[in-house]
Amino acid sequence: MSYVSGTLVRSLAQFSNLSGPNNPTSVTLKMNKFGVVSTPTPVSDGAGAYHYDVDTTGLTVGTPPSEITLEWIGTGTVQAIGSDNMQVTAPVM
């Protein structure tokens, strides 16, 4: 999906095993925002549910579109990796 730079976008992750929604022993979130990689802290919303609010600020007028990629990694009781991608465009004015 495409967003204008400056928009706050929620990334969601849902972890589950054969028993249903379940929390991994640990959850790591990696984010590549316009070429800079970081490991922000996600928020737990209950059994297996997590979110992180991504601030897409960083592109100025005339800047070419760019991408933000997130990788959700669960280890231990639930081993899973998922990703989320956001296309970001510069504001018009």
List the helices and strands and how they pair.
Layout (H helix, E strand, L loop, with lengths): L1 E3 L3 E7 L1 E2 L2 E2 L4 E8 L2 E3 L4 E4 L2 E7 L10 E10 L4 E10 L4
Parallel strand pairs: 1-10
Antiparallel strand pairs: 2-8, 3-4, 5-6, 5-9, 7-8, 9-10
Please characterize this protein's 3D structure:
This protein has no helices and 10 strands. The chain is mostly beta strands. It has a single domain (2-89), classed as Immunoglobulin-like. The protein has a 5-stranded mixed sheet with strand order 1-10-9-5-6, with no helix packed on it. Strands 2-8-7 form a 3-stranded antiparallel sheet, with no helix packed on it. The mean pLDDT is 97.
Tags for this model:
93 residues, Immunoglobulin-like, three-stranded antiparallel β-sheet, 60% strand
